[in-house]
Amino acid sequence: MNNKVSIFCLKYWRSILKRVLPPSIRGSVLFFVFILALSLVLTVCTNKTANQGNSTASPSSIHKTKSGDAKKGSEQQDKNIPAKFSQTLIGPDEIKQAMGDPPLNGYDLYAIKVGEKEKAKKNLFIRGASADEEIPLVFAFFALIGGGRRILIDSGFVDEEKIKSWKIINYSNPASQLLKIGIKADQITDIIITHRHWDHIGGISLFPRATCWMAEGEYNDAQLKTESSSPALFTALKQIKAENRLKFTEPFQHLFPGVAVVRQGAHTQHFQYVVLKNIDGIWILPSDEIPLDENLKNNIISGQTGNTAESEKALQTILFLAHDKEGSIEHVIPSHEPSVFKRFPEKAPGIVQISHGAETK
Predict the structure, then answer these.
(1) Which residue ranges in the chain fall short of pLDDT 50?
(2) Are residues 208 and 323 in the same domain?
(3) What is the reported pLDDT for 322?
């Protein structure tokens, strides 16, 4: 439309100028007007092209879509990863190269059961499962002992209301469980929190000297979620910050010799999992991004995800790491898998040893 207007104006002024200008200068003036009109047309075309380009959704505008807010387990997911679920860009090769070596004698790695649930909806843990199907679960955290440190991956839970509402059976206090392998609560040096959910972060108040490592966004979300729903946990979160025992992690960070966190997945907004390079190979502790063995064996993501594409990326990265020559798929330890406590040697009731340091072989 703008081009047509410009051409009409050119013709109109040319006819006017022919009538009023002397023949001796008419040609020069008309040429000048022609050049001016041509410049105007080119400017209009350029602006139109630029506007068309701006109307196309850029990556940043895609990131502002609301697909990341989809309900857990929803079958409708935006394949464009929203910024809130777009985590580390590091690939599995870079993870392996950055892992470094474990301490000289390696680590002892334990899985520690806190409780069990006889029947849970399977579709919360296996994407696409029937809504009527139910499965048993365990609730566990992990302990990593070596290199002068006693590290927990998540912390279990102590909330009695959650224990009742979730119908948890055979519950054991996390600190009491650790005593079975000779570790006191005040000896824990570090806790790596994978995400803010009650069964993973709910035991931090038990360990008064531990430094807590978690993503800043996850910490902020935890405070918002617990202020009214779990006052005791909210107080514990404030306390670790006030006592300078809170450390925010990067999207990929090598925390200790052979221990790194990878912020990848969409179970929560700022979810992170743990990769361990021990003397017997690479181990992955994926927490709720891969809650069950079935996720691994059938290459299916969890039903609780904020974004399908991001969870699929995390699953494939973990599978790649697990199939590396230094590891195997058996070196991925899901967080709610009951068989973990059957396939590894028992050290005490509800505690199995997954990996050994040199001194304990």
Answers:
(1) 1-8, 10, 44, 46-86
(2) yes
(3) 80
- CB count within 10 Å of CB 131 equals 11
Considering the domain architecture, whether residues 33 and 142 belong to the same structural domain is answered as no
* CA–CA distance, 192 with 61 (Å, rounded to integer): 33
- 251-277 tens-digit pLDDT: 999 999 999 999 999 999 999 999 999
**Segments forming the whole domain that contains residue 36:** 2-50
pTM of the model: 0.75
The pLDDT value recorded for residue 19 is 59
Structural domain includes residue 276: yes
- Let me know whether 127 and 39 are in one domain: no
User: What pLDDT is stored for residue 43 in this prediction?
Assistant: 54
Beta strands in the chain (DSSP E): 108-121, 134-146, 149-153, 190-192, 211-214, 246-248, 252-256, 259-262, 273-278, 281-285, 346-348, 351-355
**Residue 128 region, left (φ>0) first, then alpha (ψ -120 to 50), else beta?**
left
Interatomic CA distance for residues 208 and 236, integer angstroms: 10
Q: Output the pLDDT for position 65.
A: 28
Helix extents (H) in 230-277: 231-242
Place of tokens 């350029």: 46
**Exposed e or buried b for every residue in 30-59, given b needs 16+ CB within 10 A?**
beeeeeebeebeeeeeeeeeeeeeeeeeee
Number of domains within the chain = 2
Residues 151 and 36 grouped into a single domain: no
Strands (E), 24-121: 108-121
Q: Check whether residue 92 and residue 140 sit in a common domain.
A: yes
Identity of the amino acid at 115? G
